[in-house]
Amino acid sequence: MSVALQFSAPGADLAFLVARVLFGAFIAFMGLNHFMNVDQMSGYAEMKGLPAPRLGVVFSGGMLVFGGVGIAAGVFPALAAGAVALFLLVSTPLFHDFWAVPEDQQQSEMTNFLKNVVMFGGSLVFLALSTVSWSYAVGVGLF
After folding, report:
1. Number of helices followed by number of strands (H, E) in the chain
2. Distance between CA atoms of residues 143 and 132, nearest Å
3. Residue 74 and residue 23: Cα distance in Å, rounded?
4. Measured in Å, how far apart are the chain's first and last C-alpha atoms?
5. How far, in Å, CA of 139 to CA of 143, rounded?
6. What is the C-alpha to C-alpha distance for residues 86 and 108, in angstroms, rounded to an integer?
């Protein structure tokens, strides 16, 4: 059964579209960054103890590109938002462990940790809303 997401405020559908596009584009860019800097990111992943770091960087980059484009366009939004949420759930404490780094790195890692927590929250909102029809969406994979 499909339920339409209907906002009562004027312009809310357009605001939701803008939010999807901004959030999705940011996530997709993060994924592209994995591919553009695969060597550097693989070295960082290896330093953090990730097994098969290059494969992890490429796979997670694909998850982020798929997730970002899916959220922005409204294509398989449950899978897209789920992929982003899963990536952030795993990568945030693994790669931005501000509590376990030297003092001179703590602020930077905490900032990245908190940024990821906010994005995780956003991905959960899109995941929760993936069971309803989205205005201005491609509509593939919507329930």
Report:
1. 5, 2
2. 6
3. 12
4. 7
5. 9
6. 23
For residues 68 and 74, give the distance between their C-alpha atoms in angstroms, rounded to a whole number. 10
Residue 126, both tokens? 């899109």
- Contact assessment for residue 51 and residue 42, using Cβ atoms and an 8 Å cutoff: no
pLDDT digit string, tens, across residues 32-42: 999 999 999 99
> Which of 53, 30, 31 shows the shortest CA–CA distance to 42?
53
Torsion sign, CA atoms 73, 6, 78, 111: positive
Q: Which residues 6+ apart lie within 8 Å of 26 measured at CB?
A: 68, 119
Among 81, 84, 63, 67, residue whose Cα is nearest residue 143: 81
Residue spans per domain, the chain: 9-133
* 40-87 pLDDT tens trace: 999 999 999 999 999 999 999 999 999 999 999 999 999 999 999 999
pTM summary value: 0.89
Tell which residue, 105, 14, 94, has the closest CA to residue 47: 94
